């Protein structure tokens, strides 16, 4: 964990749910739940299970010390020895009873994921609500639509924000029902050490942790981890696209949006800069995801009943992917809340081409009388002249023999008005907003 970079690359509440302290707490919660489940099944005296739970809850354990001791065994197993020593007496016999280290670590990972997803969904909900406000407030704000980084046909900023909203709502929906299940199989996935009580312990263990009960142990069947990696990677992909668009719209030459926040956005050497630092930070965090997802997918290749290396390879990218995703969502929400939309600049940018972005509309209007090819050639010729600085596009079109024969100057100016060629933008914004509200119910 980095005190220098974490405030940027691991910002927001998800970070705390994936800290070393959170991991240690989850491991202890799992050990306590295991003892309780075995007491529920009649394998462990209740008073001994309660003693184990008490020590798990109140005993002092140091993550750094445990990490240092783990080097010799290759996993956090030293926690079991220390827990056993702290429990003491007859109850110590039942610490970690019937489990293997992977059972505890995998179950702790699922418990951490559950807690982190709750925090992540709360942040996503705030970000989506902020996007919805932008869409609602700017449902009619005309903006240049851009394809391949060039001005195309006009859109509205409301439609742009509605697209952001739709993506955020989609990943939030995917996070509603992840397959989070406990892991309990013993050394090779048979729970032989628990005898006939194995299934009963598994059921009680799942219930105590509030996690799903798997049909069988999944020590080397890692689709649950891969599924989490996929949805977190998808979330980061959505955020990366949104934040990149914001940074492009905030460029000096475009200047259609900017972030406004006291003390944010300055440069160490250039006083005039107004950097969209929240969107930039969201982008930086989101771009960590592809490599982390790739590592987790690669680690799915796990052999026999317990893997040598691939399971161990999951721990850091699993943790970091949650932290990076949480940071990306946090910073995107912050960017939305700081965002100032310059509707006048959007209109000015639309007018840069003198109406050329609407040339398609003139062609369509004309084609009914002249045929599409003749209309296209005439409008293209006039547009090239206008873009070369040889006159006003509307006047050049009106002066063209073919165009002027069928369209008046006033009608041409009307056709070249971006605000009059927004198609179903308003309808789509309304639909996105309705879907968002429905999803919150």
Overview of this structure, please?
By secondary structure, the protein is mainly alpha-helical. It is 62% helix and 4% strand. It is built from 20 helices and four strands. The protein has a two-stranded antiparallel ribbon. β1 (142-147) and β2 (150-156) form a beta hairpin. α7 runs parallel beside α13 (310-338), α10 (223-249) packs antiparallel against α12 (289-298) and α15 (359-370) packs antiparallel against α16 (372-387). The longest helix is centred in the first third of the chain and has 37 residues, at 101-137.
Structural class: mainly alpha
Spell out the helices and strands N to C: HHHHHHHEEHHHEHHHEHHHHHHH
C-alpha-based Rg, rounded = 30 Å
Please give the share of residues in helix. Answer: 55-70%
Strand content: under 5%
Query: Quick check: average pLDDT?
Result: 94
Biggest sheet details: 2 strands, antiparallel
Alpha carbon gap, first and last residue: 37 Å
Got a strand count?
4
Low-confidence stretches: none
Main β-sheet, spatial strand arrangement: 1-2
Count of runs of 4 or more consecutive helical residues: 20
The backbone outline, from C-alpha atoms, is elongated
List the helices and strands and how they pair.
Blueprint: H1 6-9, H2 14-17, H3 20-40, H4 46-58, H5 63-69, H6 78-87, H7 101-137, E1 142-147, E2 150-156, H8 157-174, H9 198-209, H10 223-249, E3 257-259, H11 277-286, H12 289-298, H13 310-338, E4 339-341, H14 343-350, H15 359-370, H16 372-387, H17 393-399, H18 401-406, H19 409-415, H20 425-439
Antiparallel strand pairs: 1-2, 3-4
């Amino acid at each position: 964990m980095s005190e220098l970079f974490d405030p940027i690359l691991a910002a927001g509440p998800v970070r705390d749910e994936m800290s070393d302290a959170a991991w240690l707490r989850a491991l202890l919660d799992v050990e306590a739940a295991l003892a309780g489940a075995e007491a529920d099944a009649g394998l462990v005296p209740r008073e001994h299970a309660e003693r184990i739970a008490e020590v798990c809850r109140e005993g002092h354990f140091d993550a750094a010390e445990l990490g240092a001791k783990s080097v010799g065994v290759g996993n956090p197993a030293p926690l079991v020895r220390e827990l056993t020593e702290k429990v003491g007496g007859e109850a110590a016999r039942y610490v970690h009873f019937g489990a293997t280290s992977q059972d505890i670590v995998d179950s702790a990972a699922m418990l951490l994921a559950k807690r982190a997803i709750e925090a992540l969904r709360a942040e996503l909900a705030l970000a989506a609500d902020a996007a919805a406000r932008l869409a609602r407030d700017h449902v009619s704000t005309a903006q240049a639509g851009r394809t391949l980084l060039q001005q195309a046909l006009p859109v509205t900023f409301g439609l742009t924000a509605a697209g952001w909203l739709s993506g955020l709502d989609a990943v939030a929906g995917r996070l509603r029902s992840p397959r989070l299940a406990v892991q309990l199989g013993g050394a090779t996935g048979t729970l032989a050490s628990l005898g006939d009580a194995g299934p009963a312990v598994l059921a009680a263990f799942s219930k105590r942790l509030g996690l799903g009960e798997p049909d069988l142990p999944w020590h080397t069947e890692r689709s649950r981890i891969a599924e989490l990696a996929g949805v977190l990677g998808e979330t980061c992909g959505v955020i990366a696209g949104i934040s990149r668009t914001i940074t492009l719209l905030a460029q000096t030459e475009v200047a259609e949006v900017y972030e406004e926040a006291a003390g944010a956005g300055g440069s160490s050497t250039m006083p005039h800069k107004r950097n969209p630092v929240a969107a930039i930070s969201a982008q930086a965090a989101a771009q960590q995801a592809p490599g982390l997802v790739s590592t987790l997918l690669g680690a799915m290749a796990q052999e026999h009943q317990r893997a040598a290396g691939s399971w161990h390879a999951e721990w850091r990218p699993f943790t970091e992917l949650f932290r990076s995703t949480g940071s990306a969502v946090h910073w995107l929400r912050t960017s939305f809340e700081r965002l100032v939309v310059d509707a006048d600049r959007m209109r000015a940018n639309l007018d840069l081409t003198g109406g050329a972005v609407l040339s398609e509309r003139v062609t369509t209007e004309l084609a009914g009388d002249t045929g599409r090819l003749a209309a296209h050639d005439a409008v293209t010729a006039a547009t090239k002249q206008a873009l070369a600085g040889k006159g006003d596009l509307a006047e050049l079109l009106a002066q063209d023999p073919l165009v002027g024969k069928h369209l008046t100057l006033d009608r041409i100016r009307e056709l070249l008005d971006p605000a009059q060629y927004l198609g179903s933008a308003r309808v789509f914004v309304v639909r996105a907003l309705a879907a968002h509200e429905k999803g919150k119910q």
